[in-house]
Design a protein that fits this description.
The complex is a heterodimer of chains A (191) and B (275).
Chain A: H1 2-8, E1 14-20, H2 29-36, E2 46-49, E3 54-57, H3 62-74, E4 80-89, E5 92-101, E6 107-108, E7 114-121, E8 131-139, E9 142-143, E10 148-156, E11 165-173, E12 183-190
Antiparallel strand pairs in A: 2-3, 4-5, 5-10, 6-9, 7-8, 7-11, 11-12
Chain B: E1 28-37, E2 43-52, E3 58-66, E4 75-81, E5 86-89, H1 92-97, E6 101-111, E7 114-124, E8 127-134, E9 136-137, E10 146-155, E11 163-171, E12 177-185, E13 190-198, E14 203-206, E15 218-227, E16 234-242, E17 248-252, E18 254-258, E19 266-272
Antiparallel strand pairs in B: 1-2, 1-6, 1-9, 2-5, 2-7, 3-4, 3-6, 7-8, 10-15, 10-18, 11-14, 11-16, 12-13, 12-15, 16-17
Classes of the chains: A mainly beta (191), B mainly beta (275).
């Protein structure tokens, strides 16, 4: 189903990623739990769009539900500008990122703003053709509205097919401060 | 109707919009005025001229909008002009507000019609060098999602030679907005982007703005300014100053065309267990 959606949205700026829930790299899953805001057991798959702007879990009308989540997100303007330079350094990718905050809020520790890099391989490893191989993130200490700052991140990668790697860099924050779902301001895809 | 009673000296290239959300389209703005010292021992002052138009006397209030502040509740001063007469407010920031610094001015008419102009100049003992700064109606100011060009800009790496470009933007709304300034060489190469964060009714002026993106000379350059903030309404201008004499030229913004879309990339993540 996810692969079918990826084909359907192939001409639009949407990236579909699969994390192995039991061995997920990084802490992206914390965004899903923040959006869910509940406890106990939940049914797989856990799905989120734009760091928790929309989320879903368990059995749903996959095609229509996931499509609606993506289309909702596509309709929004980005609230940050990302300039990303990616470079392979040995068995890692280094990302140099300039973030320009176009939102009206100051990004920082008060709203848990962070920059993330996700590297994925276009290979059928799990259930889809886009398997996440590495994730890293850094906190944004303070980035007032209308300002820009530079950041660097490195994602170490193990046994991967370098010819099939892609990556996405995104910036997100928690509009509610210390509670509630996160939201993504912008993302930049590196083919 | 009040809209027909204002005659405004404004930038002809800007489109007139009659109804604006949260903005009084009839307000007149002087985007830049000063009572301050500047680079190279310059001393900047602003004279404001207001003429009562036609056979009626006019009354108006002048609001002080200091640079970098939230000006939702500005200091104000009231004036009147006799029918057929002109009123010159010399060094207006000092004389009307006892203010030192850089500010924009907002003029609201109470009765009658007015014509407005201003001159900001370097008050040199050997003679002044000045620039005309027009009053712009809020209804004619740049909108969100449209690019505006400031052309004939220049920058010298030497402070003793050539020119420098100061660039300013004034928020005309009660909301915070962000203005992006793309700085280009004459060949169109993008040298860099300077974002400006504007409080309500706030002015930001960046001195020698090209220095933010290059250490070198920019013999001929231009800027594209835009805001993507919802409901944005702003003024933008450049002032190109001769580094040797302090002589300045006011450059108004001219409409370039629709802003390029800043595409949103959506990230869909599924946490799954194989099988």
């Amino acid at each position: 189903m996810v692969d079918q959606l990826a084909r359907d949205f192939a001409d639009q700026p949407v990236v579909f990623l699969e994390h192995p829930v039991d061995t997920a790299q990084g802490d992206r899953i914390s965004r899903w739990w923040a959006a869910y805001a509940g406890g106990g057991s939940v049914l797989l798959p856990l799905v989120m769009v734009d760091s928790g702007y929309r989320h879903s879990y368990g059995s749903v009308a996959f095609s229509s539900a996931y499509r609606a989540m993506v289309e909702d997100a596509l309709a929004r303007p980005p609230e940050a500008r990302l300039e990303v330079a990616r470079q392979r350094v040995g068995s890692a990718y280094r990302f140099d990122v300039q973030v320009t905050n176009l939102s009206p809020v100051t990004l920082g520790s008060g709203n848990q703003a962070a920059l993330h890099a996700i590297v994925y391989e276009e290979t059928h490893v799990g259930d889809t053709d886009r398997f996440v191989r590495g994730v890293t993130s850094i906190s944004i200490p303070s980035l007032p509205s209308g300002t820009a700052a530079d950041y660097s991140m490195t994602v170490a990668l193990g046994s991967v097919n370098w010819n099939r790697l892609h990556s996405v860099v995104l910036v997100d924050y928690r509009p509610g401060g210390s509670t509630g779902p996160y939201d993504m301001l912008a993302a930049d895809l590196q083919p | 109707m009040k809209a027909h009673r204002l005659v405004v000296s404004f930038l002809a290239a800007l489109a007139l919009v009659s109804l604006l959300s949260g903005v009084d389209a009839e307000d007149l703005y002087i985007p830049a005025s000063a009572h301050t010292g500047g680079v190279g021992d310059t001393q900047w002052r602003t004279d404001l001229e207001v003429k009562a138009r036609g056979a009626e006397a006019a009354t108006f209030t002048l609001d002080l909008l200091p640079e970098g502040l939230d000006n939702s509740a500005p200091a104000s001063a009231s004036f009147s002009v006799a029918a057929g007469a002109c009123l010159r407010l010399e060094d207006v920031l000092a004389s009307a507000f006892s203010f030192t610094g850089t500010a924009a001015l907002r003029l609201r008419t109470g009765s009658g019609m007015v014509l407005v102009a201003s001159r900001t100049y370097n008050d040199d003992p050997d003679g002044t060098y000045g620039q005309y700064v027009p009053a712009v109606a809020a209804g004619a100011a740049p909108l969100a999602s449209v690019d505006y060009a400031l052309i004939q800009l220049s920058r010298s790496a030497s402070p003793d030679d050539g020119y420098r470009t100061n660039l300013g933007a004034l928020n005309l709304t009660a909301s915070h907005i962000v203005v992006e300034v793309d700085l280009h060489s004459a060949t169109g190469d993008l040298l860099g982007t300077v974002p400006l964060s504007l409080h309500p009714y706030s002015l930001e002026q960046v001195t020698d703005i090209f220095a933010r993106v290059t250490p070198g000379d920019v013999e001929d350059g231009f800027a594209l300014v835009r805001s993507r903030s919802t409901g944005a309404r702003f003024l933008a201008y450049a002032s190109v100053v001769d580094n040797r004499s302090g002589d300045a030229v006011f450059i108004p913004a001219q409409e370039e065309g629709p802003s390029p879309e800043l595409e949103r990339t959506v990230v869909f993540e599924a946490f799954m267990r194989h099988g």
